[in-house]
Amino acid sequence: MPNIVVLVKQVPDTYSERKLNESDHTLDRESADAVLDEINERAVEEALKIKEASEGEVTVLCVGPDRATDAIRKALSMGADKAIHVSDESLHGSDMVATAKVIAAAIGRVEGVDLVIAGNEASDGRGGAVPAMLAELLGMPQLTHARQVTVDGSTVQVDRETEEGLTHLEAGLPAVISVTEKINEPRYPSFKGIMAAKKKPVETLTVADLGVDAGEVGLANAWSTVLEAAPKPPRTAGQRVDDEGDGGTKIAEYLVGQKLI
Amino acid sequence: MRFALSAEQRQFAESLTGLLSAADVATVARRWAGGEHEPGLKLWRRLAEVGVTALAVPEHRDGLGAGAVELVVAFERLGYHGVPGPWTDTAAALPALLDDELLAGVAAGETLASLRWDPHVPHALDADVADTRIAVDGTDLRVFTPGRSLSGVDGSRRLFEAVPGDVIASCPDPGRAFDQAALATAAQLLGAGRWLLDRSVDYARQRVQYGRTIGEFQAVKHLLADVATRLELAGPLVYGAAVALDAGGDVPRDVSAARVAAADAAYLAARTGLQVHGAIGYTAEHPLGLWLAKVRALTGTWGTQAFHRSRVLTALRAGSVR
Which residues of chain B fall below pLDDT 50? Predict the structure, then answer.
């Protein structure tokens, strides 16, 4: 009966234009539609699959501003049982280390956690280090970049896929897992699930509730500082090659010039 | 009276959008038109899993017992994505026609129904794939057997002659079932109109003529703006009729007004869509034709425009205007 915590994050829609605030270079959350990060849908799906195979309970954990409740609702309507929402103005601009500390403290409030499931990286920050940091803070084994997860009694097996290749990992529970896009196809919330989600408990906590020192979080206490940011330059028009019988040669010459072939 | 959809209704629509956007429904519809039902039935079951077929089924028949507003939300999405199959018969009309254990099969997505309803639905839709076939004859419900297959304007709506047999049950007040089906049709038309507008706007932004995208020409903008306005005005009538079905009101008047407005708006979207797309819209390769045909077919089923206009007129004459 695994007790699972799934980490979810609300991110700007990947299909919309994403911007940074000009004043402090943090994410401009107002400029784009906010959605539950797609990789987190897969993390929730995996947790639900494990739960359906052997019962247990799935808790969704989200650190984010008030409007992240929409992302939490979606996870609950997919079938998660309850949620913890850490929402605090002082968290604005927190770096990954501070975020991991807050998440670790919030996980500490769930009794008897067997498994923490996260996405391998969020589509906005793309740091991809929070699951590993979290495992370190919680003193749990980390099985990251999983494309397949099998829970068997008190152990968990994972196929870990990275650019270097495939590794098969096994650890005793409790453990921290991060999943990749290949893990599964997330379900669509059903009408029943959506209605049931309305009644599921969401516990909202502040940094102080978690006993985390406010001096450890936020933009001012981040270990790194963004000094300057510039928008990505617009794509320049490509080079046009007219085929006068020698099109292939010209393309090859271009590719050689770019040291691609 | 509150017309705005609730957060849950919007979320349900989003869920259906996600599912249907990833399902390549145009291909499913083309195969359905060719008599190849398997992809369509698979999609049917997936939509049943998220609850579409169970919405109007009462809870004591394993349904969701949801309201007409939820039904409209779902059917608008079915229309937008051009989903083939006897959806109106099965998920909108049948649950209000009888209270029978076969509704549990409807809710689970295992039972497909085809109805004949003289004179409004003279031919039976998808009667070859449906396992429950009922001809509504006044207050009598008769089984029917599918006869000759007929050709219709929309290839993905496969029509059959219905040969009525024995009376199996009676429905003292079939009006609710009819109105629910007419409203589901209106919602599908609204959705189909929105799809036609969206694709036409996309195309107008893409297609270049005389050195600029055609959407920059005012004449094209006006065409599309007219469609947007008509659809925008039809929307509240459709949702308003659903509220009337749920909360009480002059249901026949409101449903018919919604059907007339939605069909007119969708038909304008179809005509304009074809014009904006130009010749490409005529080709079988482009999906536009699937929606053009669907709009034309839906406009004539579950009551003609003339029938629905006459119901509005009757209500107005009776002085039921509030």
Answer: none
